[in-house]
Design brief:
The radius of gyration is 21 Å and the shape is globular. With about 375 residues, it is mostly helical. It folds into two domains: about 140 residues; about 210 residues, no CATH class. The chain is built from 16 helices and two strands. It has a two-stranded antiparallel ribbon with strand order 1-2.
């Protein structure tokens, strides 16, 4: 749902948008050269107020206040969408972190709707195409989220000098599997590691290679890594590269070509090196535990969620894995809970945000905004393996 802003201390990896001048230049270039202009008529003149909203019976004061808060939040979200549309279509300079206001306004709309359905359960409506639980989202507002994603497609466009791959999804799977084999996994568990790697790619960038980040000046590229993660990953790759070469010589030949191609470019904007270094910096050390993780989490989506938590809060997640009781391991540190909420986990509505702690089972269940991305990754993985 828009690139996540990984608010972090030195040990975690998440971010907040592009620097003002490069982003404004990038968006203008994307619009002019890639036909990325946005059709503002899609939301022009249409007020996204559900007919049912005006057909409620007598409401209590608490219900009326919740309804008013929700309508205000939805109107504000639409207003921010229109503002970004106008700025992009007229090639106006964009503010620093141009996606942040959009992200916060979207979250406020979802949060206030959950507050409304908590006090007025009759407002829980039909399912929606984004697979958001109906208690959190009014399906009549789908057009607003459609526009939200269109805008982020422009805001998160890769820089002009980014080096793309013709096989971005296969690259992720191949690298994940090769690294897993070099870490000692057998072929079957290495495939699971490859599928998990693809899930992280979709979770971080919706499967868009070399993505920017309209909410972060720090985290960039296909795995949304910061400079320190990239450097750590490169060093760890050098240490393991010879082992990979004995398992998959062809992959190392490809790696040598990509290294030469990247040259002095920020390696986060070469898709191959960005994925390789992102996996090595954060996830490779956990790959040897894949078989044990699968026994505890047989659902492939839960497996991807756990590794995404490694991306968001690595230190607590490592502790949970070492505890011997992963699903019951409880996080109660307020700072860590804040990082989770900043990445749309237990983030919506007063009831969710009032939680002061959560077990890993509860966290996995609360990651419903990731479900559609991980399902897409699973389908793409099956397609790659079939081919």
């Amino acid at each position: 749902m828009g690139k996540k802003a990984h608010t972090v201390p030195s040990w975690t990896a998440l971010g907040v948008a592009f620097v003002f001048t490069p982003l404004a230049f990038l968006v203008n270039d994307a619009i002019i050269n890639a036909g990325a202009s946005l059709d503002i008529s899609a939301i022009g003149g249409f007020r996204f107020v559900s007919p049912a909203m005006g057909q409620q019976g007598t409401l209590t004061q608490k219900q009326s206040e919740a309804l008013a808060a929700y309508n205000n939040a939805a109107n504000k979200f639409e207003l921010v969408l229109r503002q970004r549309h106008a700025q992009i279509n007229s090639n106006q300079p964009l503010p620093n972190l141009p996606g942040q206001a959009l992200y916060l306004a979207r979250n406020d709309m979802i949060s206030t709707y959950k507050d409304l359905t908590d006090v007025l359960p009759s407002r829980i409506g039909r399912s929606n195409k984004f697979a958001i639980p109906p208690a959190y989202f009014d399906a009549d507002r789908e057009p607003l989220l459609d526009e939200y994603f269109k805008i982020f497609d422009v805001l998160d466009a890769p820089p002009a000098n980014a080096q793309k791959s013709e096989t971005p999804f296969k690259d992720v799977v191949d690298l994940g599997m090769a690294i897993a084999r070099a870490k000692g996994l057998d072929a079957a568990n290495a495939q699971i590691a490859g599928r998990i790697s693809l899930g992280i790619f979709f979770a971080e960038t919706d499967g868009i290679q070399n993505a920017g980040n309209a909410r972060s000046n720090k985290y960039k590229g296909s795995f949304q890594t910061g400079p320190s993660e990239d450097q750590i990953g490169r060093a760890r790759w050098v240490a393991i590269k010879q082992r990979v070469a004995t398992i998959d010589p062809a992959l190392i030949l490809r790696d040598d070509r990509e290294e030469a191609r990247a040259g002095n470019l920020d390696h986060r904007f070469n898709h191959w090196t960005a994925v390789r270094d992102g996996l090595m910096s954060t996830h490779a050390d956990i790959f040897p535990q894949v078989a044990a993780i699968v026994r505890v989490l047989p659902d492939p989506i839960d497996q991807m969620k756990l590794f995404e938590l490694m991306q968001i809060v690595p230190t607590p997640t490592r502790a949970a894995l070492k505890s011997g009781n992963l699903l019951s391991y409880r996080i109660s540190d307020p700072t860590v809970m804040g990082y989770l909420r900043n990445n749309s986990i237990s983030a919506f509505g007063h009831a969710d945000r009032a939680r002061t702690s959560a077990t890993y089972r509860e966290l996995l269940d609360a990651m419903w905004l990731f479900n559609a991305k991980f399902e897409q990754a699973r389908r793409k993985f099956d397609e790659i393996r079939t081919k």
